[in-house]
Amino acid sequence: MGKLPGFENMRKAIETIKAACRILVTSHRKPDGDALGCMAALDAALRRQGKDVQLLLLSPIPSWYAFLFDRLPPILGEAMTVDRLTAGGYDLVVIVDTNSRNQLKDLAGWLDKAHVPVLVIDHHATSDRLGSVEITDTTAAAAGVLVHELIQSAGWSVTPDMATALFVAVATDTGWFRFSNTDARVLRIAAQLIDAGADPAAVYARLYQNFTSERFALMTAMLDHMSLHFDGRYAAQYLTAEDFRRTGAAYSDTEDLISECQRIGSVQVAAIFVEQQDGRIRCSLRSKGAVNVRAIAEQFGGGGHTNAAGTFLPAPIDHAMSLIHDLIASRLPDVP
Ligand SMILES: [Mn+2]
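Above: inputs. Below: predicted complex with manganese (II) ion.
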């Protein structure tokens, strides 16, 4: 390995893209602002290089990100099938913001059989080495940082729409530049994106002052269900399938709601348990202290970052909550 392995991987990634004609671009299930911002920016960047680009979603997108796309990308298992992927003749698959098989639903099995080169652009520590070429950097605040660096390295220009998409990516993954992953590198990129046409106030209003009444009702249900443990250091919250039925909210409406309880000064670890339509329990974890929540999620096959991670847990919800409760007890200091 040379002195600058990151630089070498970047060079390989650009060569791989240049050699490809039909490119499939996708990201993880339950896509967030980073995933979707990267997909939208790559779509524009690659089209401007004359590539035939197909975006693919693995689950529905939260409605407030729809403005990133002229037309909503198809969802695997709905408008796009595995058979149609095979018939698509793709000569490159780009996966952004994940390197984990269990984040890719049926796409993982298709990749095993398709023998197509895969470029992974990711910043998570959990990695299944899915890429034949990988731009991976766990110190990057968002995958959007790496996509921006790829576009810069390739010498491609950034249009205002691309700048907005990448601003969404870096701003959402840093909690609007408040989380501990906020560093000078991501702020420099944010400044460049503003220079290139991103409007932070307009994006903020669109993403954070744009709740539906259904989503707001879901948030109040979540806050009603919050309980504090271990001298207020752990906040546990849950949402049942009945909460979604009653409020009319969508499953994608849960994004970011977990962070509300982190406004409580004593809270070091937060969890939300969401009962899925298939009965499983989706658990998201956040930490603002020393507890490594990725290590907790990985015990159940999940993954993520030290301060933000997620996993699926077996039902019922009480059982799922007790599993996490016990692990957090073992990781917080001085729990009696
Ligand atoms: Mn990300």
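The longest strand covers residues 269-275.
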